[in-house]
Amino acid sequence: MAPYIDYSKYPFVFPREDLRELYVDSPSAIVSQDEVLKGKLSVLVKQIIEGGEISADVCSSSEECVLLYYAVLDIAKATGDKWFQNRVALAYSKHASRYMEQEDSEKLLLLGRKLGLEVSSALKEPSVPKLPVISRSGKGVKFTPCEFAVSITSYLKVVSKRLIHDQAYSLVNNIVSNGYVYLDHRTYQRILEEAILNRVLEEMEESTPPLEVEEFVRLVAETTRALRESRKELAVSTNWVSRARISVEPRTGELPVIEELFPPCITRIVEITRSGGNPSHVERFNLAAFLGSIGLDADSVLEYFKSTADFNEKIARYQVEHILGLRGGKKRYLPYSCERMRASGICPVQEQCKGGRNPVAVYKYRVRRRFRSVQEESGENLDTDKAAGGI
């Protein structure tokens, strides 16, 4: 039996142009004028805002799921809220991931093709490429078969966005042959998750919300109010220390938090989080490691991540506490060196920052210069080396 796509699980692969063939010009107009569908849409929006997830029972048929999907895209586009837009894409990606874990290889191949990937089964090749995986238990090396062959063009199109900083997805760390990247089942599923996220964001950008429909406009207004309320709960309360209010004890050895003095690499990551974007795993690690290294505790570090689209406090706290050395082996991690930041594509500048060869040293140098400047202006006798963490 030939595999088929269940649109209740994967509504994002149902082409918008096919809706017109079914005489559906605007899914949002239909949903907003039907009390049952409108109620389900409100529930769906609430789930995405509050939990970043979509329940399996939010719609009762493939048709409903497709209509609600396109209606959510229109609402997200109409709000103009980047955090919500990214959260919608992440929610659908995670929703699909739960189903993909239960699918066989043929179904995943079909899904990949529906998402625009040039992919084929590597199991049909005379010699199936295998990826060596070193066993941590000391039992030697095991081999994981690479079931899927994705064209380099398709592969790079997916990983060039959020996954570009993760070395696990670099071409040099994967099997590449004859223009194809060979992937094991787990890695291919991760690529599909990312392809889904990209597809949702692209379709959202192309959507045209029916702003002439009064009920739809009312739904957009309700969503905007809900987002405003969520902002109050997620408001960042980081300690700001302005130039005029530097009041750190000179001999405590602690660093003040002066965001305008953060190195360019860290500033870039902060801007991504503040805008509701989706920083990569590597970017999140470096931000947490940097903030912990300049003296922020776990709660203060978490504040920086609360505005990311996929924020989950339980998971984020565990990861932050692990980076800060509060869990596991109690090892405290440091951010990448400047050289490694550049190699990972995180550093946005070409020249080497003054003050050191890692973000913490650069920040301490900048704080020391700021303290000296304040000292000169005020005539105070301030031990700037001690104030800047002993540098």
CATH names the topology of the largest domain as DNA Cyclobutane Dipyrimidine Photolyase, subunit A, domain 3
Q: Number of DSSP helices?
A: 16
Number-wise, the strands total 6
The neighbouring-strand order within the major sheet is 1-4-6-5
Which structural class do the helices and strands define?
A: alpha+beta
The profile of the biggest β sheet is: 4 strands, antiparallel
Supply the CATH class of the largest domain: Mainly Alpha
Whole-angstrom Rg: 24 Å
The coarse silhouette is globular
Oligomer: single chain
Order of helices and strands: HHHHHHEEEEHEEHHHHHHHHH
The CATH architecture category of the largest domain equals Orthogonal Bundle
Approximate helicity band: 40-55%
The amount of beta strand, in percent, is 5-15%
Quick synopsis:
The protein is of the alpha+beta class and 391 residues long. Strands 1-4-6-5 form a four-stranded antiparallel sheet. Strands 2-3 form a two-stranded antiparallel ribbon.
Structure notes:
The strands form two sheets. This protein has a four-stranded antiparallel β-sheet. A two-stranded antiparallel sheet has the order 2-3. A hairpin with a 2-residue loop joins β5 (175-177) and β6. α3 (35-51) crosses α4 (62-79) and α6 runs parallel beside α8. The model is unreliable at 236-253 and 384-391 (pLDDT under 50). The protein is built from 16 helices and six strands. The protein has 391 residues and is of the alpha+beta class. Helix content is 51%, strand content 6%. The chain has three domains: 11-100 and 200-226, no CATH class; 105-191, no CATH class; 243-387, DNA Cyclobutane Dipyrimidine Photolyase, subunit A, domain 3 (Orthogonal Bundle).
